[in-house]
Task: structure prediction
Amino acid sequence: MGLEFKPVEAKDIAAITPFVGLRPNKTCDSVFLDSFLWLEYYNVRFAISDGKAVQWLMDLDGEPSSAMPLCREEDLEHYFYEMVTYFNEVLKKPFQIYLADEEAVEKLQLDPAKFEVKEQEDLKDYLYDGDALRTLAGKKLHKKKNNLNAFVKAYEGRIEYRRLCCSDKEEVWRFLDSWRIAKGEDVEEHLDYEVRGIHEILNNCSVLPVQMGGVFVDGKLEAFSIGSLNKRENMAVIHIEKANPEMRGLYQYINREFLIHEFPEVTLVNREDDLGIEGLRKAKMSYNPVGFARKYSIRQIMP
Result:
């Protein structure tokens, strides 16, 4: 087959961007930055097919895997089966996708005799109303507003929200180093890959479709967030949010200020999944999600 895969690099944004947002997709994978952030963890590679689709190749538990192609909805079936053929004839492997978006799964209506499709319940993305997170108004978000107000009161006159750029990378790295040390060794497997992915974003932020913001207290960076925009869905995807946990209300503050300053018009906010971690699930549910972007695994059943 004519597919030629290469590792994803920052400079590939120009080649991939025309294919982003061609069909409905509310998952965090619908934007370029998510693939770039996790490119080392999954060994992400891509190929452009026929000038009409981006195909993905990555590693999952030592086996090749893929993702749904970036293409128009009417072309989805063709390019899905192109990758099935590539796996079967070139890689000599059964085809599999780890995280397929719900819209694609519904569109394809795969034959259950040929493909096993299972919802990845712990990996669904949490979706929130943009206005609700920008205002924290209402009874359901009252505790969040109280925490935010406590932070503002405790550090009144000492707080500055600032849009971050490439020149701030050294300060972000210093914050990340201390944040990572505080986490200790008993952490999720992916954490160090995430930190390295953040480093790559900061090294290449001038060419990436990224928004970054930080909260400074007494001139010191105490929280930062990284996000990107899904224009089709008018949705902000919050890829990274880190804050000093010792400052009550700081997470609520960076959450709100980042959206107010960087995504003032979005109607939806995707704050990604909870990885099946109970503490993360409770935290994400406490922000009153309006829905979920569900994801599915797809595995080819070989005769």
